[in-house]
Design goal:
With about 140 residues, this protein is an alpha/beta fold. Helices cover about 50% and strands about 15% of the residues. It has six helices and six strands, in the order βααβααβααβββ. The protein has a six-stranded mixed beta sheet. A hairpin with a 2-residue loop joins strand 5 and strand 6. Helix 5 crosses helix 6. The two termini are about 20 Å apart. About 30% of the residues are buried.
Length: about 140
């Protein structure tokens, strides 16, 4: 199996009790990456996760911080200036939001073959990365 970039929505669904079927599916997906350095997230994903988990789900910030520390088992991409510029290009060419394009740019930089997300067009390939909605 090659490297998989995990978008924020997959991580959020793994803790959100409002969608029990999605929660179980996302937990199984994340567990499938255990033991192998195949999962990749970015600092953007970490920031979005904190914001959504505390604001929308109402979780205590320290609980969310602990959850984030558990994601340290994944490779973490630090967003760079070059990735920001790449995301701008992708957003223009593919007509994506800047934030979605930044997910793709981070996945490309980490040599991922797949992005797991609910936010983009499943089956599409952008800059060599295939978009998959696994839930």
């Amino acid at each position: 199996m090659s490297k998989v970039f995990i978008d924020t929505n997959i991580l959020i669904y793994s803790i959100d009790g409002s969608y029990p079927k999605k929660r179980e599916k996302c937990r199984a997906l994340l567990k499938s990456l255990s033991g192998d350095p195949l999962g990749v997230i970015s600092t953007q994903v970490m920031q979005e996760f904190f914001a959504v988990a505390t604001k929308k789900l109402g979780l205590d910030p320290l609980v969310v911080k602990d959850l984030l520390s558990g994601f340290a088992r994944f490779e973490i991409v630090l967003i760079t200036q070059d990735m920001v510029f790449e995301a701008i290009d992708i957003s223009i060419i593919k007509r994506l939001s800047f934030w979605d394009a930044l997910i793709v740019a981070a996945a490309v930089s980490a040599n991922c073959s797949v992005v797991w997300t609910e936010d983009l067009n499943p089956g599409e390939t952008i800059r060599g990365v295939r978009i998959v909605n696994p839930i």
